[in-house]
Structures are given as structure tokens and as C-alpha cells.
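Anyone able to model this chain together with protoporphyrin IX containing FE?
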Amino acid sequence: MKHLSQSPSDPEFVQNPYAFYDRARAAGPVLFWEDYGMLAAFDHATVHALLRDRRLGREIPDDQRKPVPDHLQAFDAVEKHSMLEKEGDGHKRLRGLVLRAFTSRRIAALHDDIAEICAELIAAFPDTPFDLIPAFCTQVPVRVIARLLGVPEDRSDDLLRWSNAMVAMYQSNRSRAIEDAAEIAAAEFADFLRSYIDTRRDDPRDDLITNLIAAEEDGAKLSTDELIGTCVLLLNAGHEATVHSLGNAVKTILEQGGSRDFLNPDQIANTADELLRYDPPLHIFTRYAYEDIDLGNQILKQGDQIALVLGAAGRDPAMWPHADRFDAAHNAKAHVAFGGGVHFCVGAPLARLELQIALPMLFAALPDMRLDATPSYADSYHFHKLETLIVTP
Ligand code: HEM
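re: yes, here you go
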């Protein structure tokens, strides 16, 4: 079996993981990534196939479950009800209930809200250099997901704080301090949602939380703990990845010369997908093998994990000519930035809508905007996100 090593915290890698991905894909495309202690797939065909292969899954095999340490009880109580950590009927039931409430009509109805939020943020921009990440990229998704769920928007700062602390648990540099912060955040987040769900039970509204309370499939409603786990997942997943998709997308666009016709209404849908293919915010998701799987040149053993490197799959030249360039002429639809198979991103239609509205509005309002400094990515792999995005308006 071919091995390779690459620290995910190496500064050069953090700024440009794609150079390493190209080497790995050419040498592999499936190799043992020593720093991760598992096999990793770097090409589009393998990643695409394994995302859909039911012999693999996200749920930890029973014989690998470890007792939850005392300092992570509240975090675990939320996580264990997340559909993202389940397979089979348990996953199907939770996802089905969410999808019944998360209808395409409800998403499309958010169009005007998204435009209104963007306009309000743009109107408040200063006329001197400023950081677009907090001023725009963070605010759009957090306000949209709060509005969708029915959580008061004046709690946005708390949502951000809780969510940032919890998602840090999935970084490769997780530490005890990160765990302690995530535990406090999970406890506070769950308390807030518990009382908020009680309020909505007595005073239903036309929002996603009220819909989730009412959602019923074969007589099986969500329990309060499942509701909390689901709302935390939607709030966390619903903004974190979108914030950094927006940030990475703005950077990519600002680095292009020439016309920006690709932001026109007839092209923006494909452009948003091409931006996600080119520089996605989430680079790896892992899977457990539930049986031995022949990967061609090696066997993935039952119980072992494999890293599906979504960030590398998007740059596979076998899929896209000159894949290392942003090109609005690419047919980007087949990218895997939203995953694939049974865990395909529930929020993809919402995330796409946000990008398709926010980017044209931003560049129409600030046509002369330019980068004030070369933006740098944060040391937070598998998240590929900008630390700051300072622009001159
Ligand atoms: C551009 C922004 C986004 C990106 C790149 C993204 C990416 C992903 C990916 C790659 C997965 C699959 C993980 C796996 O297969 O292991 C996923 C799952 C998920 N995403 Fe997103 N996401 C985005 C936005 C959103 C939004 C806005 C929401 C909710 C409002 C959301 C909710 C979810 C949920 C609930 C799952 C779990 C689905 C399941 O386990 O069945 N995501 N996302």
C-alpha cells in the first residue's frame, strides 16, 4: 500500500492544499495518509462512488464506540441525535422528517428575505477598507438560517458563538481547550433551544421549528432531544459552510481579470457551483467500511475509515479540463462539495440560493471592489476558510 505524509497544519498546505492533492491523485489516487492514520481518496471517480456505496457509512461501528468522557456529556447528548452521525433506518427517519419541513417552496420563499438581508448589510458597509467576512459573509447565512428556523435574529451572536465552538471539534487540531469550549456551547445551545421549542409548542408560527414539532411520519414524531440535535445540526451546518463558501467565492472572483458576465442571471447558477468546485469550504468527510471493500489496488478493511477528499475531487483533471482554474464555462454540476448519496447536503438548495443572490448583489453594489491584501486561509483543516477578506470598496 502506498503511503504519503502531509501535515494538515503545514503553513504551505493550509494556504494551498491543491498542490499536494495533485501529487497525491497522480500517485494514488487512493493512498494511506499517515497524518490521518487512514486511507484517503483524491480522485473524483472514487470519491463519487464511495459516497454512494452503502457498504460504507458515517455511523461508528458498535465495537469501536468508546465511553463518552465526563467533560463531553452535553456535546454527546446533542451529537447522538444528529442525522449526520447515523445510518440506516435511524438516519432515514430523521432526514425524512427534516425534508418534509424543509420543502423547496419554503426555500424559494426565502428569496426576498435573502435579498433584503444582503441589501441591509451592503448599505452599512464603510467606505474605507474593511473585512468582508464578518461584515457580509458571516451575517448573510446566520440571519437566513435564524429566520428559516424561526429563532430570533437578535440571538445571531449567540448562535455564532455556540456554533463556532462546536464545529471546532471537527478540526484536525482538536485539543482539550476546544473540547471544553464545545461542551459549554452545547449545553447553552441545548438549553436555549429547549425553552424556545417549548414556546413554539404553545405558540406555533409558520417557521421550520414549528414544522419540525408537527412533522410526523408513520406516527413517529421527533422527541425533544431529537429536535434539539436536529436544530443544532441545521444551525451549525446551515451557516458555517455557507460563510466560507461566500468568502472563498468572493476571493476567487476578485482574483479574476476581465468581464464578470458569469454573475448575470442566466449564468449565476452554474457559476455558484463552479465556485464551490474550485474552492470548497469543507475538504474531507470520512466513512467507516462495514465490510471488506476491494478498491482495485488495495482492500479497505472492515472497521477501517477512509477519508474522502472532496477538495481534491473537485480539481480532478479527468473530470474538468484545466481543473485548477476557475472557469464559468465548466459544467460544474457534478462537483462533490455537497457530498453525495444518502448524506447529500440537506441545505444545498438553500446554500445555492444564498450564493446566487448574495454574489451578484455584492458585485453590483461594489463594482470597483478590490483586495486590499492577499487573503490568508486559517489553520483549521478540514475547513478551508479565510481568516480575513480585507477589501477596498
Ligand atoms: C455551501 C454551503 C454548504 C456546503 C459546502 C455543505 C456541505 C455538506 C456536505 C459535504 C455534506 C455531507 C457530509 C457527508 O457526506 O459526510 C453535508 C451534509 C449536510 N448539510 Fe450541508 N453544506 C452546506 C450548507 C448547508 C446548509 C445551508 C444546511 C442547512 C440549512 C446544511 C445542512 C446539512 C445537513 C443537515 C447535512 C446532513 C445530511 C445527512 O446526514 O443526511 N448544509 N453538507
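The longest strand covers residues 284-289.
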